[in-house]
Give the backbone structure.
Amino acid sequence: MKPDHFYATLGVKRRINAAGTLTRLGGALMHEEVLAAMAAAARASVDIGELQQAASRTISRLTGAQAGIVTTGASAALTLAAAAAMTRWDIAKMAALPQAEGFANEILLPRTHYTGYAHALRAAGARIVDIGHNDRGTGAGVRGLEPWEIESAITPRTAAFAISANAANVSDLPVAVKACRAKGIPVLVDAAAQLPPKSNLKKFFQLGADLVVFSGGKAIGGPQASGILAGRRDLVGSALVQQLDMDVPHATWVPPSLIDLRKMKGIPHHGLGRGFKVGKEEIVGLLVALERFAAADDKASNAALERRLGKISRGLNGRIVPASETGRVPQLHLKVRNPAAVSRRLQAGNPPVHLSERYAGQGMLIVDPQALRPEDDATLAAALRKVLNA
Ligand SMILES: *Cc1c(COP(=O)(O)O)cnc(C)c1O
């Protein structure tokens, strides 16, 4: 059955997504090869721990991290990372979460890195400790995060240090690594949407991060409800044991080697991440998508996207911004007088059209082609001409 038809039978409108791999619009569109692997995965039983161990091998090879697991998204990976940093291999602490007041549960988060996803860290029971200031973000000053601000904030209650990486602030990472490593504090990086470029799969580990999260349903093109938690083997292992179904008998359970039974006083019960269970289909789909993403020819695909944007932009007052400037994929930036009104009209169209509203405050709407089907280009162009030139 064609997807458009299936959504129609549910009474759900199919939308032209020129807004990027937004979660609220369903994230990335999956390649046939990914779908085929998921379908095959759905028809056989496997040990999920063993499958995650295999995922770890693939993720390690492609990211350079010691280990990695598939999660139900980057947000879930942040919660698991916070849990792992607070508990390590202590199963009594695992059992206590999210009540973590009794042990080191503070995560240092620079004010320049505070996002809505800090909630995902707090969900594990962590308490966020804001540090530093936001002089650069507000334009009030020139200085960024400094080592003494981190060092003086670290106490026996500190469990981790977190940042939300982007191209502009990534220079904070080595500063944090230097200050935290000396005190044994793991550094956690939210890199959910920092792909492409695919070099970022490795970059944050090269800069010394202990744990990095990526979204699987954005640029990687995996299942919408998938993500990656990668990094230090012991922390990833702790996250995994807190995610798996742990209703297992002592006598017969064979854990994957990522889970170090010798470090634990016993076998933990279902962990904080039990509600983030990831299906065999998502694990396999993510792995196939990740292999495709890592092997893709970015130059060729960006050139193809630029050609498509060139056609879409004909007759419009827009500028094609190359990948070298956006840091991701090429985009078409459209200057409009009333972005909110234009966006509303496009969304009310048939079919509804979504543009990125990221820079609406600056009088701009953006065609982000990451989840735009080539067969929709002409319909999109017609809708844009109609609404923008009205
Ligand atoms: C999208 C995003 C997330 C959440 O990713 P999911 O895979 O949807 O859970 C977390 N952090 C940042 C910065 C993001 O952009």
